[in-house]
Amino acid sequence: MRVYFATDHGGFLLKNALTEYVRGLGYEVEDCGAHELDPDDDYTEIIARAAGALSKDIAVGKESRAIILGRSGQGEAMVANRFSGVRCALYYGARLEMIAQTRAHNDANALSLGADFLSEEDAREAVRAFLETPFSGEERHARRIAQIDDELLTAGAS
């Protein structure tokens, strides 16, 4: 499975550590940036690269995930969730069970991490839970995901 990573300057060092960690777990990693520490970069275009790649994979049935980072992770999740098929959950260090639930119940395929609120070890635990927890496949959860992804529901929300 391919895992896309992206961040701006706010999560740059943590992203670099996590990409190596995820490679060590045996996943294929694609680093969508930032590739250098630039305090003036904008997360929007960098996150869009990872979310766009994930969305394209989803459209052709290729199993992939994205892990994006920012200082809070909030704006990054907002950008990612604008892409078709992307269901990005936000985590900044509450209870680790939240990661398992968002995978099992919502089949989240992207994870936004708040780098200012997580140690490297906490981020590793969150990433591992995100990558290793399967979707439950329960009918009620599948039904709700279909409703989220339904173009009519999306169009009606605007």
Describe the 3D structure:
By secondary structure, the chain is of the alpha/beta class. It has one domain (2-157): Ribose 5-phosphate Isomerase B, Chain: A (3-Layer(aba) Sandwich), CATH 3.40.1400. It is built from seven helices and five strands, in the order βαβαβαβαβααα. The chain has helices at residues 12-24, 43-59, 74-80, 97-106, 120-132, 139-149, 151-157, and strands spanning 2-7, 28-31, 64-70, 88-91, 110-114. A five-stranded parallel β-sheet has the order 2-1-3-5-4, with helices on both faces. α1 (12-24) crosses α5 and α2 runs parallel beside α3. The longest helix has 17 residues, at 43-59. It is globular. The mean pLDDT is 94.
Give the topology, please.
Blueprint: E1 2-7, H1 12-24, E2 28-31, H2 43-59, E3 64-70, H3 74-80, E4 88-91, H4 97-106, E5 110-114, H5 120-132, H6 139-149, H7 151-157
Parallel strand pairs: 1-2, 1-3, 3-5, 4-5
Helix pairs in contact: 1-5, 2-3
What's the gist of this structure?
This protein is of the alpha/beta class and 158 residues long. The chain is built from 7 helices and 5 strands. It has one domain (2-157): Sugar-phosphate isomerase, RpiB/LacA/LacB (Ribose 5-phosphate Isomerase B, Chain: A, 3-Layer(aba) Sandwich).
